[in-house]
Amino acid sequence: MLAVEALALRYAGIRALRGVSLSVAEGETVALIGPNGAGKSSLLNAISGIVRPAAGRIRFDGRDITALPPWEIARMGLIQVPEGRQVFAEMTVLENLLTGRTALAGRAEIFSLDDVFAMFPILRERAGQLAGSLSGGQQQMLAIARGLMGAPRLLLLDEPSLGLAPLIVAQVFRALAGLKARGLTILLVEQNARQALAASDRALVLEQGRIVHHGPSAELARDPDVIAHYLGQGDTGAMTQQGGG
Amino acid sequence: MLAQQLLNGFVVGGVYALFALGFTLVFGIQRVLNLAHGAIFMSGAFIAYYTVAAGGPLWLGLALAVIGSGLISVLVEIVCFRRLRRSGDEEFGGIISSIGASLVIMTIAQRISDTQVLRFPFETFPVIIWRFWGLRVSALQLFMLALALALVVVLGWFIYRTAFGRQVRAVTQNERAAMLMGINPVRIHMQTFFLSGALAGAAGVLVGLAFSSIRYTMGEPFLMYGFVIIILGGLGSIPGALLASFLFGMGQTMLTAYMPSAISGLNEAFIFAALFLLLLFRPHGLMGREAAGALRGRR
User: Fold this and answer.
1) Which helix or strand (DSSP H or E) is residue B130 part of?
2) In 10 A of CB B42, how many CB atoms?
3) Among A102, A107, A148, A153, which would you mutate to test the B interface (most chain B Cβ atoms within 10 Å of its Cβ)?
4) What is the pLDDT, as a whole number, of residue B90?
């Protein structure tokens, strides 16, 4: 469904991506993990058309989207839920969700308003409130729900657990498991490697703009190198799993 | 007497609202001041005047002014702001290039009008005056108020009740996130400039009718008043600009009516002093929020 070929990206003179290739097939959840500054967000932003790659090609459903503007990419159903939520703070929760429908652009909806309210009941309760008044966790749920309103065929999620309390992180990942169960294709970028590996079918490890490991998530979770670098010291993943059950 | 002045001030306030709403709308979405807004306002008066002078009816002049000013405003967006936005230098660069556009538009108007003060022919708008409760109201005043209020209501409905309005506000608040939702900000910027220019053009026609002096420089004091109003109301705030327009219109009318004529030249000094005092106590204006300043990061 998504094919990224030999993507290179420079950011203010720094080589953020150095020939990254990856693919995502319909129905799978692929996790992209790696340390801060490895180029994970740069990769998602290149796929979404926010930044232009220096070299390489991005194909979605066989169509070359490398040079398309971000709004056209979103309208094809390749929708990113950006890092740090980025909800429209001075609009109500409902208005945020309705704005998400812009990406439909004539395509049929996949998730209705009732669907996302069923998934995140708190959003129904807060529908009339300004998005800026929500807690961080609620804003993350709103950001995901807003993305779903645009009928994503592939959902790009950038650090959905960033800055959230462990209990809330577990809640967000439960929601992702629900989306996966409904057959949604997901490309997930996470620093929280343990959670990301648990939630995905396949995973890639990005370091300094290169993919250094890849394979089925369950295998990567047993890889001594990955364990040493990403699952080693007491990261919050273990705690969350206890907290969230 | 007081009631009459309040009424007059309210009518003037309605015209200020048309001017200032477009000004604040563009500021809200671009975080940049379009200093050609006064010239666009003037172009509305010119288009209506020349339509009437050529024998056309006033309604046609008004319609052409609204559309024409909207298109001139879009042209200003394309020429002055779009390229700068791409290079990320729109805040200061945009101010300078819109001053340039303002000069170009004014020079063209100066040439066309041969630097003359133009007047709509007598009775272009029928002179009818009603009196009730000791108040004197002209048909023109009622028309100005009705048109201003109607346009303000339509604008409010557009911005707060339609999908287009949600997209405008989304781009205003977070352009990057809006693009990720499938919104084309280039189109939103153009549509916003059109609305802004169209409202200014309508205001220009009303001012031309009411004060019967259409000059190529007529936009300059309005640009200054526009500043006062959108700062008073809170930068980028639509309800704030509306409230401030009426306060300003009435305040200005009161000053003109009640100040001894010996110091009438100081009226504007009083207005700016009052603004200064208010900003000491409410630095973000009547309805502004801290975050709404020009220095807020946009991305």
Assistant:
1) strand B129-132
2) 29
3) A102
4) 67
Within 8 A of A88 by CB-CB distance, chain B residues are 169-170, 173-174, 177-178
Q: Which residues contact A161 (CB under 8 A, 6 or more apart)?
A: A169, A172, A173, A190, A191, A192, A195
Cβ pair B176:A86 closer than 8 A: yes
Closest residue on chain B to A94 (Cα): B166
Shortest Cα–Cα distance, A143 to chain B (Å)? 10
**Beta strand A185-190 pairing with A14-24:** unpaired
Given pLDDT bands bounded at 50, 70 and 90, which one contains residue A233?
low
Residue B290 has pLDDT above 80, yes or no: no
Set out the domains of chain A in order of their start, with CATH numbers: 2-76+153-244 (3.40.50.300), 88-151 (no CATH)
Residue B89 lies in a domain: yes
Question: Which of B114, B175, B159 has its CA nearest to residue B298?
Answer: B175
Q: Is residue B281 part of a domain?
A: no
The per-residue pLDDT for B267 is 81
Total structural domains within chain B: 1
Query: Mean pLDDT in chain A?
Result: 90
Which of B169, B173, B181 has its CB closest to that of A102?
B181
- ipTM for the predicted complex comes to 0.89
pLDDT band, residue B289 (cuts 50/70/90): low
Eight-state DSSP code of residue A207:
E
Read off the pLDDT of residues B113-164 as tens digits, 9 standing for 90 and up: 998 899 998 888 888 899 888 888 999 999 999 999 999 999 989 999 999 9
